[in-house]
Amino acid sequence: MLELSEIVRTYRIGGQSVRALDGIDLRIDAGQFVSVVGPSGAGKSTLLHLLGALDRPDRGSIRFRDREIGHLDDDRQSEFRRHHVGFVFQFFNLLPTLSAWENVAVPKLLDGTGLRATKDRALELLELVGLGDRVEHRPSELSGGQMQRVALARALVMDPPLILADEPTGNLDSKTGADIMALLARIAHDDQHERAVVMVTHNTEAANTTDRVLTLADGRIIADDSSRAAVALGDPVAEVR
């Protein structure tokens, strides 16, 4: 699904050049739940931004389903993100004045889909993530775990093949975090859809439940442990569509 070849990304900070990524080669296939770990400054967020077409490499190739996405212009980057990537953030990024279903619906409404069809899809996804009884609640009326489930439903509303999660359990207690990890695993492993999930995390316990753990240091992949199988830590839904 994704192939990165000789990726280099350098930033100018305080008049100095800092190489955030230094020759990354990586392949991620559909059906994989991949975690990215490493110390602060290792290049984890930079890698996630490049995968989601939020940034461009200085050198190298990023191919998504045999299409080069590493050097798209701004408009084509935006189009790629809208239709191919679902983002999940540590701080949820929900709109406080909107209900749960309205937050889920926003990407599809902005893409021009009619309200009725969009609402039906939003309600379906909220049911699938276990929030069928909270569809009219605003973020202030939801727990942290419930808000993250809304964010996951929103990430799925455009049916993207790639889900990128940035510290998705960072603001959750251990039990709620485990439920979110189980849900992310089911998203990746759903046989009806060709999806991959890539997660940046500092949580070693969470990373160890994923199919594959990439360890970054100084902008390089220093370990790639793909000899594991994801462990379901809960059973919030039977299937994620």
Distinctive features:
single chain, 241 residues, alpha/beta, Rossmann fold, six-stranded mixed β-sheet, four-stranded antiparallel β-sheet, globular, disordered C terminus, ABC_transporter-like_CS
Q: What can you see in these coordinates?
A:
The chain is of the alpha/beta class. It has a single domain (2-225), classed as Rossmann fold, CATH 3.40.50.300. The protein is built from seven helices and ten strands. It has helices at residues 44-51, 74-84, 100-110, 115-128, 144-156, 174-189, 204-207; strands at 2-13, 16-28, 33-37, 59-64, 67-68, 85-89, 162-166, 196-200, 212-217, 220-225. The strands form two sheets. The protein has a six-stranded mixed sheet with strand order 6-7-8-3-9-10, sandwiched between helices. A four-stranded antiparallel sheet has the order 2-1-4-5, with helices on one face. A hairpin with a 2-residue loop joins strand 9 (212-217) and strand 10 (220-225). Helix 4 packs across helix 5 (144-156). Mean pLDDT is 90; it is low at 229-241.
Tally of discrete structural domains: 1
Total strands: 10
CATH topology: Rossmann fold
The biggest sheet, with number of strands, parallel, antiparallel or mixed sense and barrel status, is: 6 strands, mixed
- Enumerate the spans where pLDDT stays under 50 for 5 or more consecutive residues: 229-241
Strand content: 25-35%
- Helix content range: 25-40%
CATH class: Alpha Beta
Order of helices and strands: EEEHEEHEHHHEHEHEE
Shape annotation: globular
- Secondary structure class reads alpha/beta
Q: Which homologous superfamily in CATH is the superfamily? A: P-loop containing nucleotide triphosphate hydrolases
**Annotation field: number of helices:** 7
Identify the strand order in the major beta sheet.
6-7-8-3-9-10
Task: Report the mean per-residue pLDDT as an integer.
Answer: 90
CATH architecture: 3-Layer(aba) Sandwich
InterPro entries: AAA+_ATPase, ABC_transporter-like_ATP-bd, ABC_transporter-like_CS, ABC_transpr_LolD-like, MacB-like_ATP-bd, P-loop_NTPase
Organism: Nocardia xishanensis
Domain ABC transporter: 2-241
Protein name: ABC transporter ATP-binding protein
